[in-house]
Design goal:
By secondary structure, the protein is mainly alpha-helical. Helix content is 70%, strand content 0%. The chain is elongated and about 60 Å long.
């Protein structure tokens, strides 16, 4: 019972820290702020973690994990490679910036001054590129994509476009999401020689060349 209670208290503190960082940034996160949000004493915060820095690092790492898991879930929700790629790009340039994505950018912004975040950010980038690479490779194998440049380069460029455009979307007064999304989709269309915008023939309606031979 005691172990379960301790584990729940740690989860509560991590959730409170995540919310504080999302709302106020890393600079606004403090023992007092987390304690107030979690409705515990400041001493309780430090009792469950070796240091406040360790708590912050765990919250950032958890947010990064949740972010990439959500991206993978979106991709896996589509069997057709073109639909899968389109959905992944849509999720990468979202209508609303999630708490997890805000924390990713907070950690990225201070990674130079705080090396403890560098590895997590580097791993996040690798996992995002790997996700796109996997989607493209499957599409190539199924004949849906015909890459006009190296697949890893296409994947890295898609992630770079997402990261750049999402920085603009962090501004609540920016209403250019549809433009950013269209730009990214058009890059993918050119790079992969496929159709991602407008109407396209559903996979089931395509004619198998061998059937008409």
């Amino acid at each position: 019972m005691a172990a379960a209670k301790t584990a729940q208290r740690r989860r509560d503190l991590l959730e409170a820290t995540t919310r504080i960082i999302s709302e106020r940034g890393l600079s606004g996160a403090s023992v007092r702020a987390v304690a107030e949000r979690a409705q515990v004493s400041a001493g309780s915060v430090l009792y469950h973690f070796e240091s406040f820095d360790q708590l912050v690092e765990a919250a950032v790492r958890g947010a990064i994990g949740e972010f990439i898991d959500a991206r993978r879930a979106v991709a896996e929700g589509h069997r057709d490679p073109v639909d899968r790629l389109r959905a992944t790009i849509h999720a990468g340039i979202p209508e609303r910036i999630s708490d997890d994505l805000r924390i990713v950018y907070e950690a990225s912004a201070v990674a130079r001054e705080h090396p403890r975040f560098r590895l997590d950010i580097a791993l996040l980038l690798e996992r995002q590129v790997a996700l796109y690479t996997s989607i493209i490779d499957v599409g190539v194998a199924l004949g849906a994509f015909a890459p006009r440049m190296d697949v890893p380069a296409i994947a890295a460029n898609l992630v770079a476009l997402e990261d750049a455009y999402d920085l603009y979307l962090l501004d609540p007064d920016n209403w250019q999401r549809e433009t950013y999304l269209e730009n990214t989709l058009q890059f993918a269309e050119i790079a992969l020689d496929c159709r991602l915008t407008g109407d396209r023939t559903p996979p089931a309606a395509r004619t198998d060349p061998e059937e008409t031979a």
